[in-house]
TrEMBL record, chains A, B:
Gene Ontology annotations of biological process type: regulation of DNA-templated transcription
DNA-binding region coordinates: 133-230
Source organism per UniProt: Flagellimonas zhangzhouensis
Ranges for domain Response regulatory: 6-120
Name of protein: DNA-binding response regulator, OmpR family, contains REC and winged-helix (WHTH) domain
Modified residues (4-aspartylphosphate): D55
DNA sequence: AATCCTATTAATCTTTCATTAACCTTTTTG
DNA sequence: CAAAAAGGTTAATGAAAGATTAATAGGATT
């Protein structure tokens, strides 16, 4: 049996939203429907979606802005934009090569399913490729991977080697849980009681370093691991 | 595998900045996104960019003014301006000291990639002269690669062979980390404990030589390497 | 061969940083 | 709800890395 993919549909129009979620449900997708951007953000935090379908015109926020925030929560999520405007299409068409696509309204449901599957299949094939970003952004902080520098609004913050390694791992997976095992095996090479104690110390240090931006927090998930949370 | 070019995109508009950096990332560019001119200046100091894409209208500074400042930091950097205004070519003529191009908004991303590649290819043909830069400038010091001379405001400072090699490497990568491995393999050919000890001695010598300009410092990044930092 | 120059090695001192310990707070479990 | 486990924070410690100066050795030059 195929994996049942979980989608979030962000659409303020009730009729269209209902119609699409029903239709996609019939097509064996697990659909969560959010009517506002705010709702979408909350839902993204508490669900592991495989794909997001966003109306670009929402009552409370621009769809692109929303996509950015969602990406902050779940960086791997592919997007499918629903747009009535033809204006932005020239901006979006370039994305048809990557994990972003768009559809013009009115929506053709069959076409929608084709696009969804295209995005999902692309995701699974490119899962292996490692991303080597040279900078990670977290709120007003920037972590530069080339010179091992952390900056808060251009102010340099000195990090030790292990502090940097840990923050880099958390930043790479921001808003996603890093398990104890994952952290300890990548940074300490060994997953034992004493290294776990050491990890706690470093988490504490990093919290101090990141204290200047209230939107950032390193949260503990009891018995599982840590997560760098970046709030919108 | 092709070299991954590193670009800085200076764009205050969140939606456009996000879309472009995502798109260029997909096109296998390493993109660093700055939202303000000030941010751009800091990032230019701490990254070795191959190209800069500047919005001409920024909240804190005019894009052309910014380009001049960036040019002061990285003189070889080619520019690509994004402009809403229909600019006449003669305005850009003043900038044709280096590789410069411009694109009108709204941006056609495919066109953007074509222009970027055009600028970069122009760069690579003249890469020969970049590698053989005859002088490096660090604060009030000048390192002449042709006659192996270091000068502080015209005052000649005598360097030994290894001192020169090391300073040249650091100067070429100023404000960027040079790892122990990088230094030892390029200057000593072998990366072992004793050469590392020797490196420390030379760093100490160079610090004395560079002491006359307080803005210069050779900083150590524990267990990673050294960096020639040039302030302001 | 004596002198000069320079890179390496040695010796010594200082700094840095990961670990450990100690103690406190929060969460989980029985 | 009490005991136990896990997590949080700060400080002490010691080993490793780095900085600096001096000594040595080896090659080149005269």
């Amino acid at each position: 049996m195929d994996k049942k993919y979980k989608l979030i549909l962000v659409e303020d129009d009730s009729s269209l939203g209902y119609l699409l979620s029903e239709y996609l449900g019939m097509k064996n997708f697990n659909v969560v429907w959010a009517k506002t951007a705010e709702e979408a953000i909350v839902k993204t935090k508490s669900n592991a979606f495989d794909l997001a379908i966003l109306d670009v015109m929402l009552p409370d926020m621009d769809g692109f802005e929303l996509s950015q925030k969602i990406k902050g929560i779940n960086p791997e999520l592919p997007f499918l934009f629903l747009t009535a405007r033809s204006l932005k299409i020239d901006v979006l068409k370039g994305f048809s090569l990557g994990a972003v696509d768009y559809l013009k309204k009115p929506i053709d449901e069959e076409e929608l399913v084709v696009r969804i599957n295209a995005l999902l299949s692309r995701l699974s094939t490119s899962e292996e490729e490692e991303e080597h970003a040279s900078e990670y952004y977290m709120g007003d902080y920037t972590l530069n991977m080339d010179n091992f520098e952390l900056r808060y609004k251009n102010e340099l913050i000195k990090l030790t080697g292990k502090e940097f390694d840990l923050l880099a791992l958390l930043a790479k997976n921001q808003n996603q849980l890093c398990t104890h095992k994952e952290i300890l095996t990548t940074i300490w090479d060994k997953n034992d009681y004493f290294n776990k104690k050491s990890l706690n110390v470093f988490v504490s240090h990093l919290r101090k370093h990141l204290a200047k931006d209230k939107r950032l927090s390193i949260v503990n998930v009891n018995r599982r691991g840590f997560m760098l949370r970046v709030e919108e």
